[in-house]
Amino acid sequence: MGIMRIGHIDINVLDINVSREYYVNIMGMNITREDSDGTLYLKCWDEWDKYSLILRPSDEATFNRVAYKVKNDSDIDDLKEKIEAYGIETEILPEGTIVECGRVLKFNAPSGHEFNLYAHKTFLGKDVGSTNPRPWPFEGRGIKAHWIDHVLLMCQGPEGVMASTKFFQEVLEFDLAEQVTVGPNGSLQAATWLSRTSTPHDLAFVAGPEIGMHHFAFFLDGWNDILRAADVMAMHNVKIDVTPQRHGITRGETIYFFDPSGHRLETFAGLGYLMQPDMPTITWTEDELWRGIFYHTGQENGAFTTAYTLSAYK
Questions:
Q1: What is the pTM of this model?
Q2: Cα 13 from Cα 298, distance rounded (Å)
């Protein structure tokens, strides 16, 4: 089976207490573990594993790594062999090295980003349970995000995008849902959206000057939830980057905003479309790039593609 879905995001934050307040009371996450060094582990109400977000106190707001969950522990050994045959070094971290996780396969993608793959993480269950559950938790706070949906990573130039996309397609069996092509006859991929599930993307790559993380996204049900999320942000004076809008790429309904450390986040709503392995790849051309990003306005916003979180391990 191999990779199933995104498992967790690991980032550094500037003020752990301010970040605690933000992710609990605005995003609506729950703290499930706190280490002696101040590191926080959090999950959304509709997630069942121990955590989906790690916040580490630091003097720099940087991106550390992203983890994906595989179906079976044996997949770790199979993928280690495939990744190394591709020419990429790997390391297996013993059980417990990543807290509450079993063995972890660690490697750097061609882009330079660190990825972790694991099969086991401590189970907690959804906040509404799994027997006769309510559709949502009445007791929830803030935006009440369902789950962490995807991450978009910045690569050094189209070369980094293409090398990483090729690796994730050929070795980890991700499917290419959408792409932005640039250059002579559209010969270069400037951005790609890759899927292992039935959604438009579980992972995306975009070209930029340095490697890092553009954003990670929280899933909401639909447009009304997007508008409510914007209201919650306004009530808490959250810095909003892009007000409620639709993407052409993925068709998602969206808001972009920043956490207290300056990490860009997204609330992403709606299925977009049913992604399947045999779906033809959707291509956006260079002249329609901004219509693809912001479908309603189609207007260029340079800061949207140039401001992002740098990787901690450049």
A1: 0.96
A2: 33
User: pLDDT band at 299, cuts 50/70/90?
Assistant: confident
Cα–Cα distance for residue pair 17/38, rounded to 1 Å: 9
From the candidates 8, 113, 201, 214, give the one annotated as an active-site residue: 201
Of 65, 72, 70, 91, give the one whose Cα is nearest residue 80.
91
Listed in sequence order, the residues at least 6 apart from 104 whose beta carbon sits closer than 8 Å to its beta carbon are 67, 76, 92, 93, 97, 98, 116, 117, 118
Which member of 8, 113, 150, 214 is catalytic? 150
Which residues share a beta bridge with 230? Answer: none
Residue-averaged pLDDT of the chain: 95
DSSP single-letter state for residue 277: T
Amino acid at 8: H
Residue 155, beta-bridge partner list? 207
Helix (H) or strand (E) holding 78: helix 73-85
Q: Among 68, 247, 253, 308, which one carries the catalytic annotation?
A: 247
Helices and strands, number each (H, E), in the chain: 6, 18
Q: d(Cα 248, Cα 196) in Å, to the nearest integer?
A: 20
Share of the chain above pLDDT 70, in %: 99
> Taken in order 19, 270, 179, 245, is the CA torsion positive or negative?
negative
User: Which residue in 41, 118, 266, 308 is the catalytic one?
Assistant: 266
CB 255 within 8 A of CB 245: yes
Tell me, yes or no, if 236 is annotated catalytic: no
- Find the catalytic residue in 47, 215, 253, 308: 215
Between CA 176 and CA 193 the distance in angstroms is 6
Specify whether 247 is catalytic. yes
Catalytic residue among 23, 41, 118, 256: 256
Average pLDDT of 262-277? 93
| Integer Cα distance of 21 and 297 in angstroms | 34
Supply 147's token pair. 């789950």
- Residue carrying structure tokens 């068709």: 251
pLDDT of residue 305: 80
User: Is 150 an annotated catalytic residue?
Assistant: yes
